[in-house]
Specification:
Elements: H1 2-25, H2 30-53, H3 57-63, H4 65-72, H5 75-78, H6 82-87, H7 91-113, H8 119-141, H9 153-164, H10 176-210, H11 219-240
Helix pairs in contact: 1-2, 1-7, 1-8, 4-7, 7-8, 8-9, 8-10
Organism: Nibrella saemangeumensis
Protein name: Potassium channel family protein
Transmembrane segments: 37-54, 118-140, 180-205
Length: 242
């Protein structure tokens, strides 16, 4: 049963992430809002089923606390609490949790859809985080108080891509939520940059090792050297025979 539900939930996870990006960058139409609400109900039912069958429910909740918060936040819109929280300046903080929860769900969906988590998985995951992170940065920074906000989603996407490449740009976040999201993206970019550098170095060293003219001795060259040594030993032993 779990296997039968896994594929639809993975697909809905990607749809949910696309709807989040659309909501943060351009807003949702009434039809898309209804679609998002329907997917949200499905996620709640799925989570409650997983909680019901979990042998250690408290441990399950601790592991999935971000999912719990991201599923609880859309209820504010249904119960008309968003206006009150907007007055208390709490809405953007909840939106940050929703962004992180949606990215986390997208990461799980991507991991479930790929059987082997190699270099291709890292590339797709980086694209996912860049696109979703740019939407979050645009939602937080377009209302920056000093007038130097990110003016469009395209500009935010460019800024996030530069952050991913560790090059950075002249703009730095002004809002607390934007700074928190920027910090998390920078941590991911730092970790991925080291992984990509090591992967590329291994690839080029491997190609150099396979070449006979390369500077690095590969497995083939070592085997040839061992063969020559063995032949020399046999020749020396034959000459020593009376």
């Amino acid at each position: 049963m779990n296997r039968w539900l896994e594929t639809p939930l993975v697909f809905l996870g990607f749809v949910w992430l696309v709807l989040l990006i659309q909501e943060l960058a351009y807003g949702l139409t009434p039809l898309l809002e209804k679609l998002g609400t329907g997917i949200w109900f499905i996620f709640i039912i799925s989570f409650l089923l997983q909680l019901t069958v979990a042998p250690h429910k408290l441990e399950f909740l601790k592991r999935n606390w971000l999912t719990v918060l991201s599923l609880a936040i859309p209820a504010l819109r249904l119960f008309r609490l968003a206006r009150v929280l907007r007055i208390l300046r709490v809405t953007r903080g909840f939106r940050l949790v929703k962004v992180l929860g949606s990215i986390n769900r997208g990461m799980r969906a991507l991991g479930a859809s790929m059987s082997r988590r190699g270099f291709g998985y890292i590339v797709l995951l980086t694209i996912l985080i860049t696109v979703a992170g740019a939407a979050g940065m645009y939602a937080f920074e377009r209302e920056a108080p000093d007038g130097t906000a990110l003016d469009s989603y395209g500009e935010s996407l460019w800024w996030t891509a530069m952050l991913m490449t560790t090059m950075g740009s002249e703009y730095w976040p002004r809002t607390p939520e934007g700074r928190a999201l920027c910090f998390l993206i920078a941590l991911y970019a730092f970790a991925v940059f080291g992984y990509v550098t090591a992967t590329l170095a291994t690839f080029f060293i491997g190609r150099d090792a396979e070449s006979k003219e390369g500077e690095v001795a590969g497995a083939q060259a070592l085997e040839e050297l061992k063969t020559e040594i063995r032949l020399l030993r046999e020749e020396v032993a034959r000459l020593r025979e009376p």
